[in-house]
Amino acid sequence: MPGENLTRDEARERARLLSVDAYDVALDLRSAVGADTGPGPRTFRSTTTVRFSCAEPGAASFADLVAPEVVAVKLNGRELDPAAVFDGTRIALEGLAGENELVVDARCAYSRTGEGLHRFVDPEDGEVYLYTQYEPADACRVFANFEQPDLKAPFTFSVTAPAGWTVLSNGTVAGVEPSGDGDGAATTRFTPTLPISTYITAVVAGPYHYVSDRYRRTQPDGSVLEIPLGALCRKGLAKHFDADDIFTVTKQGLDFFHDHFDYPYPFGKYDQAFVPEYNIGAMENPGCVTFREEFVFRGKVTQASYEQRATIILHEMAHMWFGDLVTMEWWDDLWLKESFADFMGAFALVGATRFTDGWITFANRRKSWAYRADQLPSTHPVTADIRDLEDAKLNFDGITYAKGASVLKQLVAYAGQDAFLEGSRRYFKRHAYGNTRLADLLAVLTETSGRDMAAWSRAWLETAGVNVLTPQAVYDAEGHITELAVLQEAGSDTHPSLRPHRVAVGLYRKDAAAGERAGALVRYARAEVDVDGPRTVVTELTGAERPDLILVNDEDLTYCKIRFDEVSLDTLRERLGELSDPLARALCWSALWNLTRDGLMPARDYLALVERFAGAETDIGVLQMVQAWAQSALHHYSAPGHRAEAGARIAEGALRELRLAAPGSGHQLAWARFFAQVASADTELRMLRGLLDGSARIDGLDVDQELRWTFLASLAAQGEADEKAIAAELSRDDTASGKRHQVRSLAARPSAAVKAEAWAAVVDTDRLSNALVEATIAGFDQPNQRELLTPYAPRYFEAIERIWQERSIEIAMAIVRGLFPSTQGDATTLAATDAWLTGHPEAPSALRRLVLESRDDLARTLRGQECDARAAG
Description:
This protein has 873 residues and is of the alpha+beta class. It has an 8-stranded mixed β-sheet with strand order 5-4-7-2-1-10-13-12. Strands 15-16-17-19-18 form a 5-stranded mixed β-sheet, covered by helices on one side. A 4-stranded antiparallel β-sheet has the order 8-9-14-11, with no helix packed on it. The longest helix has 28 residues, at 845-872. The mean pLDDT is 95.
């Protein structure tokens, strides 16, 4: 990894010495267009003026900059020798005065990895699009700065770019004027921002398709708050851009947060840019939020996709308060923004939009991410120990996001919603434009709730691991409950904490009463109880009639894994589809999947549940999650000797459900995609070919371009689509999206030569952009090609240290995670992983963490395969 890492100790020392008054940043982006000028990276001019003070005149510090060339450095009027003060990542600053001005003129490199200023050339029309992405610390790839979240300052940007381009930044446009060079370029000057951190500054530039709107709100004092709204995407996506729906959700979110936060949106305008080759889902740059352009849907998608987009829009909007207005001091408290935004995104989704079942998705999809992360050897408390920026990069994980959000959901139940929201309001007003630590938030919540937030924090924020809750019931001769207890276990020996949980316990039985679906499993009794310690008796349910199903954590009030007693598990095996409440059903699906991952339920049993009951699942988001889990169960947890039979059954069931699904429905589309992903028999592959060439039809199924690529990629992986067929499909869809699909499909073909070419393209060169690296890895790793992939296991362990040293962290992470030999994994691969870990104790901790996580996943799958094999015999 390049040497731009910054440690927490360095950041604290620099913050002790320095405070920043203002930045003026001038970027000249005219070089983005035109032919490459020669060897070396394509660069742009970046001129930065920083005004800052030093608490100890005469002291030394440094500024951050990652650039191929520094042309000039001036400190307090003195010209410094760039060769003497710049080492490629830092500018040494000696003999600082009380008040200082630093001017840096540099040549910075455009990015092809989604870090810094990313440059994308649209293959459809040759147009160039630019955008920035910095979190946690890549602003220094674009301008010289003090790259840490607690050195906030106002920023004034000016950007010179080809005339006619849309140019955006955090501030509003103050003026546009010709560049003066007679080349048709123009310089856009922006108003100064309020004090913000470097990592949330932003620039977006290019011939984007831009749509505008306006948000208006009458304030309690009678004044009118107006926020200009913008939404933009590449011109090639304009015909697919549903800006009206994006604006609808945006306005609903602004209303919701204004109602609950009592602090007007502070950053002026609100642009939302959907940009190409984006590494993450979205980024909360104030006034200029960026999203991955896959949220501009090129074909038909299910309502779950629209719900996901709405959640992310609201997640980023919540950041305007949690993260942008009030920012964590250092990345240890990353959860202060990400956990809150994740929770508030779901909270606002349910409270303000048409997606009123959003908590079902949260319970089924979001928490599954948290449960997996919390069982890895790298799990950590929500408040983490972040020693440096590499640690920070890896902590944008399921703990910080999904577990943190789940814990906050528990906090709302514990402290009360009114107390929680009042605490948030005080937090914003008390710390506006400042930086905070955990103690600052706990202080306001203690004030508003009257509860001991320090004890709550110790239990939920400062310990790792997920607890397991299991019901234990005793009945009398007449079948009534004489005692019902909830047993709590620690998640593992290494994380033994037992926590206080506020849970609902629901009792379910078959009920054909009027108004109920005949034979449905319905809840007839419920109790809320505080579970604390290893065993808690639920006295409120004593005397209740014997249930068919006991559901601990009914309504998903706490963060835990749930288990079932034997009677309840037998009920689910026979009647899961009859469970009438969709949230309860989602919780059961999730619990059953956890049993499979934990090696307590054979994969064949989970797949049998999918085959029998997934077709009756009404919630489309739950269905798609269940289908994803089914693929994992089939390809990773099934015993090798049973995998072919299991695959045939699940594919037959998928085709059956595809034919039964309502024509034109989201369920039909979900089953079509799932069928393509599991099809392998000749008859199934003929069906896919027929759907592609039109010789086969399923009533209501619109095989649009995105679905065509899904079918073709599966055929390619099965050796049923060659390079010529893939090229023909690209000619139908010669776009950026089509190019990614083509690259993935080419790499998926079952050929030793194809795999060697794909491996070399990713591992041996850096010619591919981040998006094409991702597509190549996705195509390379096919579950039905284990023999082809086996030779690459030793090559992986030989390459990863070099990759970590040479590539940017985003690309290195993608390669180390994506090419880990899990598909061909067996006991030999596990031993090779252990040998690498043992033999490389000094490897960078972030790299070791990624390998340890993959190793844990592999060990888990091998235990699952053993469980499945035992069930056969």
